[in-house]
Specification:
Pfam family, one: OsmC
Protein name: Osmotically inducible protein C
Radius of gyration: 27 Å
Number of helices: 9
Helix content: 25-40%
Organism: marine sediment metagenome
CATH topology of the largest domain: Rossmann fold
Number of strands: 11
InterPro entries: AB_hydrolase_fold, KH_dom-like_a/b, OsmC/Ohr_fam, OsmC/Ohrsf
Length: 306
């Protein structure tokens, strides 16, 4: 059963109503939710008679088409949400835009005032009801992700000792053509392709992650070496880029035809270091574990996961 319930608009009212029936639920998040579900009747008041007589009707809400059924009208008329909010007994995050012209922000105030602590309010200033601006949607996702981390229990995967290797889990998040959710122990990341390649650029690309692995490994390796040798290394900055070049342009490459991948790594080293120490640090950069992995023979075994 879910530990966190998140609902937008009427979905927010639904999770507020359902939370008390789900013992495993630890926290609730509402986004642009009405404090009184019956409030939405005014949004399609001209269609109510037809909904009552025909059983359903397609209506336009916030610029989008929805099918509203008679059962829905009956359900919302029976809800006494303020009482349920008051006895929620769960952490609550209320998110609402002052510019929401579908569900007025006064509804957020009513929800917040009805609830007991712990409760939080986040203003989505400038956002519309449907969060059609990608930046607004991304902001909501980031805030919710950070907030729920206080209430979700750590999983077994997240409590693996640091000394043990951690698996990486990639799943499609279905919000974009190529968008991916990345989970590494307790960490959550997003991956995508740039817009030029058909993606939404909601996160770094696979090659961005590859460069990130090499760059962070390089910087960490230099720091560990400097500490071990007592070098006055103040700061390290690593900038990387990736492209493909013709094999014949690479004098040190074994391939003689086609193209080869080229990674250019530029390292800025700050500190009172002499020429020999700087030279040695650049040599050490080539000894970072990820650098060695990229240059060594790698065995990748692929199988179907049950």
């Amino acid at each position: 059963m879910p530990g966190i319930l998140i609902g937008h608009s009427l979905g927010g009212a639904a999770v507020l109503s359902a939370a008390e029936q789900i013992s495993e639920c630890k926290a609730v998040v509402t986004i642009g939710a009405p404090s009184d579900p019956d409030h939405v009747r005014h949004l399609f008041v001209d269609s109510i008679d037809e909904i009552e007589s025909r059983g359903e009707k397609e209506v336009l809400l916030a610029g989008r088409k929805f099918v509203v059924r008679k059962q829905f009208l009956d359900d919302i008329s029976e809800q006494k949400l303020s009482q349920k909010i008051h006895r929620l007994n769960r952490a609550l995050l209320v998110m609402h835009s002052p510019q929401d012209d579908t569900v007025d922000i006064d509804h957020a105030r009513a929800i917040y005032q009805s609830a007991l602590h712990p409760k939080s309010f986040v203003s989505l200033d400038g956002a519309d009801h449907l969060l059609t601006n990608k930046d607004d949607a991304d902001y909501v996702a980031q805030v919710v992700s950070a907030w729920v981390s206080r209430y979700l229990p750590r999983t077994e995967e997240e409590t693996v000792p640091d000394s043990e290797p951690r698996d990486v889990l990639i799943t499609e998040d279905e919000t974009g053509k190529f968008s991916q959710n990345v989970r590494v122990g307790p960490h959550r990341l997003q991956a995508d392709e740039p817009v030029a390649y058909g993606g939404d650029d909601s996160g770094p690309s696979p090659y961005d992650f590859l460069l990130t692995a090499l760059g962070t490994c390089t910087s960490m390796t230099l720091r560990m070496y400097a500490q071990r040798k007592g070098l006055p290394l103040q700061h390290v900055e690593v900038e990387l880029s990736h492209d493909k070049i013709h094999a014949k342009e690479c004098e040190s490459c074994e391939s003689e035809s086609g193209k080869v991948d080229r990674i250019q790594r530029r390292i800025r080293i700050s500190g009172e270091l002499d020429a020999e120490q700087r030279r040695r640090l650049l040599e050490i950069a080539d000894k970072c574990p990820v650098h060695r992995t990229l240059h060594s023979e790698v065995l990748i075994l692929t199988s179907e996961k049950e």
